[in-house]
Structures are given as structure tokens and as C-alpha cells.
Amino acid sequence: MPHPLDSDFVRDQLVARTVDLNGKAYRPEGEYVLYWMQSTHRLDENWAFRAAVRTANRLQRPLVVHQGLDPTYPHASDRHHDFILQGARETAQRAETLGVHYQFVLRPGRDDDRRVVDRLAARAYVVLTDLFPTAGVRERTARFAERAGCRVLAIDSSCSVPSGSFRTAEYAARTIRPKLAALLDHAIEPVTDEVPRVAVTEALRQSLRATIAEGGGLAPLPIATMTTADIRAAIAGCAIDHTVPPVSQPSGRAAALAHCARFITQGLHRYAADRAEASAPDGTSHLSPYLHYGMIAGAEVVRAARAAGAPADDEYAFVQQVTTWRELSFNWCVRTPAFDQLASLPAWLQATMRDHAQDTRPVLYDLATLEAAETHDALWNAAQRELVTTGVIHNYPRMLWGKTLLLWTESYEQARAWMFHLNDKYATDGRDPNSVGGIMWCLGLWDRPWGNKPVWGGIRPMVTARARLKFDVAAYCRRFGG
Ligand SMILES: Cc1cc2nc3c(=O)[nH]c(=O)nc-3n(C[C@H](O)[C@H](O)[C@H](O)COP(=O)(O)OP(=O)(O)OC[C@H]3O[C@@H](n4cnc5c(N)ncnc54)[C@H](O)[C@@H]3O)c2cc1C
Predict the structure, then answer these.
(1) Which of 34, 57, 108, 123 lies 20 to 30 Å (CA to CA) from residue 368?
(2) 438: Cβ below 6 Å to ligand 1?
């Protein structure tokens, strides 16, 4: 039986998922509860939205759901803007169905008014937002919480098991795995969602428009009714990188659910065997862009996998990726202040990098050559082309792609910086805690020492020359050949 929204289960989950960002008082005269949607782009199975509905209904005040898109986020491009806006259209349509007030404000220019959410917050009883450590969300939210005149709460809807269950950075997959396993079944129990009971009146709607317009004339986009051509025209007017085009993978919650359902029925039963086969188009789920933008919940994916009746090995292998590896990455980013810096790596890695800093690298490439996939290595080039053209790299070549940069750059720091640059510039699933987890893993995080080789030191080596033992390299290179 699903838990009701006012149940102890929901209250306990929210306690473990919520971080009070500023300890400020609630604003008693606040006209509404404000949910500032940042990284969880859905209204279903969204813990921040649930908390906002609970609060609004308890107070008998309306709920305002606000999403904004600025040109200033890291690696802002047509690719990300398009994925976000196409998804927002569906969120707006879902909001209309549910009778929820949802507004989407696009800030085209860098110099345009950037304080819309501040002005909305100035009229709110409390602001609830998404807890997300990467993509600039953490920094933006912390600055906002300092400025805001009321309490700001950040709520984790990304993890299946509340990230607040683990107070310190976990040491490795093997340490978080049993803890997650003990909590997972209970944490993913379904909840019967509710909608706000007090409607946003036409008068409030108009005054919200006035508040949005105050600082320079911005207005909510009529996103629910915009065509793809309208969305592309709006994006063309934004001060972002127009050289990284949208991907063909469809965006939005319906596409996320359809991808998940298709994978569960067609791919899950051979996941353990096929997940390393990078030449197979459907060996893995392709869910990472949807999970990154919160268009589907990890818990929904786990529940669907559990219900599929797939062989135990396949179900286990897949659920491990969606929970252990994904939530280990989230845990690392939430609990480690400089999560993307070499200085955060364990002492043995610092020592090995010091010892091998002067080792001669077999070949050095500049960033432009790497970005253009013009190295001597056909497999690496194919992985880079997969990234640039599709917005993701299959996990196995992605590890090789990352590790190889240790051999081709002047320093570990340059390898780190260029991995982040290339990944986050082109990946639709980029700027995610998983981006950090994957890249830092290439540099040795969560691993043990692996001997002592030139350049690698104790870092686990992986070279493209041995990849043909794992998957059909020739077929992969044909798929993403130049
Ligand atoms: C250098 C490098 C960079 C990476 N950058 C990203 C990134 O920007 N965004 C991203 O989401 N993942 C990243 N990963 C992790 C992994 O490659 C992708 O999550 C996975 O390939 C996505 O494909 P899928 O959805 O088909 O995965 P599936 O195999 O179908 O797995 C389902 C889900 O489990 C999670 N998952 C799978 N593998 C991993 C993993 N190794 N670590 C953490 N979670 C995992 C993802 O959420 C994924 O969508 C990176 C890995 C490396 C080595």
C-alpha cells in the first residue's frame, strides 16, 4: 500500500532528505510556499515538491513552483538548454493537469535581471529547493539562502536512499553497498502524491507576473504550448554556446519513462552480459541524461527493475549501478567540499602522483586535438565522437577515454581539468555527481593501489590496446568512426 503524504514514512524520509541552508525564520505573513525547481525536473515522485505540498496544505496557503534558466550555468549550450526546455514543456503540461501553478522564466542575456527568485522569495513563507551538489546548484543555492529573508530548505530527490543517511564521505563502493542495501527496500516504498489544496488565484498569478517583470521586464514563457521550433527560436536568442547542438535523444519525463520501460522489457534480462559491449546500441539503459535532470527518479527505476522478473544476476548488476555507484558519487560530492579537485584524493594517490609527476608521457596532445578527436588512437577518437555527437559515452569506453588522458597530458591536474572540460561540455548527463565520480575514479578514487607503473604510479591502468578483450572494438569504431 502506498504511504499517504501525511504519513510518518514521508515525514521520516523528509527529515533524512532535508538540509536547512540558512536557519532563518519562516515568514509568517508569506503569501505562498515557494518551490524553486533546480535539478529535479518532474512533479511526480519529487521529494521537494512533496514537502512543498505538505507545507502549503498544512498552512492552507497556495504553492508556487518556479523554474528559471540562466545563460550563466557551467557549459551553458544549445544541448543543455534544449534538453531542459523540452523537459520543462512537459512539466508545465503536467502542472496544468494537476492544477499546480508552475512558471518557467528564461533569462536570455547575461546582463538581464538575475534576481527573479529573490523577489519571489521575498513574498514567500518558506523556500524549498532541490539538494544537488554539482552543476553550480550548490553554490548558487548557498548564495541565495544567505540573501533570502526566510528559511531555505534543500531537499534530496536524487537518491533512492536519502543522502542524509550517510553523514560522512563513504570510503568505497564496498562500504556504502551494505548500508544502501539495508535501507533501500524501505526507502523506495511508494507514496500517494497530493496536490496543493489552495489554488493560486488570478490576482496572485498577475502579481507574480509583476514581481517577475520588476527588475527588467522578464516574463514566464508560455512553455506548455511552445513547439520545438518556438523553443529553438528562444534558445537562439540566449547568450550561450551555440556550437554544441541539441542531441537526438528525446527529452522529458514521458521519454524517460518510455526509455526505462523499453530497457526493462528488452535489455535488462541480458544486462550482466551486455553492459560492457559498447558496440551494442541497447546493452545499457541510456537513462543517465534523464536521471541527471531528474526527469525520472532512481527509485522508479529500481522499482521497475525489481518488478520485471529478470534473471537475478541481471537485476542485481543493474540495481547496483543505479544505487551503489550513483549514490556513492552523490555521497562523495555532498560530503567532500572540493569534490572535483586532486587535493581531495586520498594520501596514497597524492604520494603516487608526486612520485610520478616527472615521468615522460608517451605522447602529448593539446585540447583542440582531443576535442576534434584527431589523436592516433581510433578507439579513443570513436569515444570522443560518441560524446560529441550523442551526448554520452558508453561506460566501458568512457573509463578508457578518461584514463587515457593521464598518458596524454602534461600533468595529473591537466588530465583532470580536461576530462571535466570535455565531459561536461558535451555530455547531456554531464555536470552530474556521476561525472565527478567517474572522472575522480579514473584518477584512483575508491580504488586500491595497483602496482607501480610509469605515469600511472599506483593508479589502476587501463589502455585502449586491451579493450578488444572486453568488447567488439572494430564494431564500436565503425559506429562512431570518422
Ligand atoms: C570518465 C567518466 C565520466 C563519467 N561521466 C558521467 C556523467 O557525466 N554522467 C553520468 O551520469 N555518468 C557518468 N559516468 C558514469 C557512467 O559512465 C554513466 O553513468 C553510464 O555510462 C550511463 O549510461 P547508462 O545510463 O546507459 O547506464 P546503465 O548501465 O544503464 O546504468 C543505469 C544508471 O546507473 C548509473 N550508473 C551506471 N554506471 C555508473 C557509474 N560507473 N558510476 C555512477 N553511476 C553509474 C547511471 O545513473 C546510469 O544511468 C562517467 C564515467 C566515467 C568513467
Answers:
(1) 108
(2) yes
